[in-house]
Amino acid sequence: MIYIDNRQDKILVDEDFEKKVEEVIRFALFEEGVNRECEISVIFIDNSQIREINKETRNIDKETDVLSFPMLDYPKGKVYKDVYKNYNFQASYMNEGELVLGDIVLSLEKTQEQSNEYSHSYLREACYLVVHSVLHLLGYDHMEEEEKKIMREREEVILNKLSITR
């Protein structure tokens, strides 16, 4: 189940946009071998809201584009398909039979700014950030150069298969 909660009023969110976000999430999960029912929450906010969350959770007092809050722990260098693909989860990770993967908090205001900055569509930027965040929920990271390379490759593969290009 994908829950979408629009908590901002600066960027229009219509049914088509929400459907595209859901499609992208489902496809990214499929591509990463998530073969069970799962739960992800997506919250759309603005720059001031994401700045506040970034300060509270990461002690970084500035706006960012997207924040991911994974519920599963991953050993260093491992991702969902390496660790949990066939794992039998305890009830604490489940909600009504669905595996809770975590939350995505996306600043639509920052998404719009970055789409202008990078000269591609707003939809492309939003889809990229959603894929990026889903991969974080599945254990990917980009703090070290090798991890970053792997994560960027997965992002591009998923987006290309969805025909979402720059």
Automatic annotation (TrEMBL):
Binds 1 zinc ion. Keywords: Cytoplasm, Endonuclease, Hydrolase, Metal-binding, Nuclease, Ribosome biogenesis, rRNA processing, Zinc. One of its GO terms (molecular function) is RNA endonuclease activity. One of its GO terms (cellular component) is cytoplasm. It is found in: Cytoplasm. Its EC number is 3.1.-.-. It is an enzyme of class 3 (hydrolase). Zn(2+) binds at H132, H136, H142. InterPro entries: MetalPrtase_cat_dom_sf_prd, YbeY, YbeY_CS. NCBIfam families: rRNA maturation RNase YbeY (TIGR00043). Belongs to the endoribonuclease YbeY family. Single strand-specific metallo-endoribonuclease involved in late-stage 70S ribosome quality control and in maturation of the 3' terminus of the 16S rRNA. This is Endoribonuclease YbeY. It comes from Clostridium polyendosporum. The gene is ybeY.
